[in-house]
Automatic annotation (TrEMBL):
Gene3D superfamilies with a match to the protein in the record: P-loop containing nucleotide triphosphate hydrolases
Keyword Nuclease: no
Lineage per the UniProt record: Bacteria, Bacillati, Actinomycetota, Actinomycetes, Micrococcales
Organism annotation: Brevibacterium marinum
InterPro entries, A to Z: AAA+_ATPase, ABC_transporter-like_ATP-bd, P-loop_NTPase
Protein's UniProt name: ABC-2 type transport system ATP-binding protein
GO molecular function terms attached to this record: ATP binding; ATP hydrolysis activity
Domain ABC transporter: residue ranges: 6-229
Chain intervals for the UniProt region annotation (Disordered): 236-283
Amino acid sequence: MMNNGVETRGLTVRRGRTTVIDRLDLNVPRGAIVGLLGPSGSGKTTLMRAIVGVQIVADGRVTVLGEPAGAAVLRHRVGYMTQRASIYDDLTVRANLRYFARVQGASVADVDRVLERTDLLGQAEQLARTLSGGQTNRVSLAAAMLGSPDLLVLDEPTVGLDPVLRAALWDIFRRLSDDGTTLLVSSHVMDEATRCDRLLLMRDGAVIADTTPSEMLKSTGAGSAEDAFLAMITADSAQSGSPSRPEDLPSRPEHVTHLLSRDEAAPVRQRRKRSSRRTGGRR
C-alpha cells in the first residue's frame, strides 16, 4: 500500500443499465507520472472522478494515499484539474487563485508559489478572459497545485494545445514529479505516452495494458508509441471479437494521433467503405 498513490480493486461504475467501468483493478505508484491513455468514452474521466471521490461507485473500492477516496483527510492532499477550465473570466489570474485558496483552505500566501511554478507571474494581474488557451490551462493547473497536494489528477490538461505549449506543461509535470508529487494524467494524444513513467491504456471501461513506454515498444516490436497502441488495440479487439484495422485510426492533424473507441470507429469504417465504392476501390 505504501508504494501506491492510488489503488482500485473491483471498481465498477454504472450509468443506468450501462456499465462504464467493470471490476477494474489498478495501481498508481507514488511519485510517478502515470499516463491514462485511451479514446474518448473509454472511461478515463469516470475513473478520475472516482479517484477524487466525486463519482458514485456501484461496487469495489478506491484507495488514495492510504485512505478511502473522497475522505475528508484527503481534501488538502489531492488536486484535481478538470477537462474544462474551472476559472472565472471576470477575475484576474491572481484573484482566481486567491479565491480557490480560500475555498480549499490553502494559505493565500501560496498563490505566489504556484504562480511561479506555472510561469504565470507575468500574467498575474490579467483578466482570465484575456488569456491564451495555454495560459488558461496553466491557471487551472496552478489552482490544483494550491496547498502542495501529494497527488495531482489531471484530466486531459493539454487538450487543444499546440506541441510547444504541450511540451511546456509537461516540463512542469516533470518538475512536480521530481519533487515527489504523484501525477495521474489522462490524454488521447499518443505522442505524450513517452513522457510518462508508466502507462495505463483504457478502452471501453477496461485497462488493456499497464506498462512503461519502453516495455510497450519492446513487447509490440513497434517503432513508435502510436504503432504500439494500434498493435495493442488490434490484439484486444481480436480477443473481444470486434476486429480493428489501421484505418480505424483518424488522420493526424499537427502530427497528433488519437485513438477511436469501437463505437467511434464504426461510422468511420462505413464512410470509408462508401467512399471506396464510389471510387471503385481507388485510394
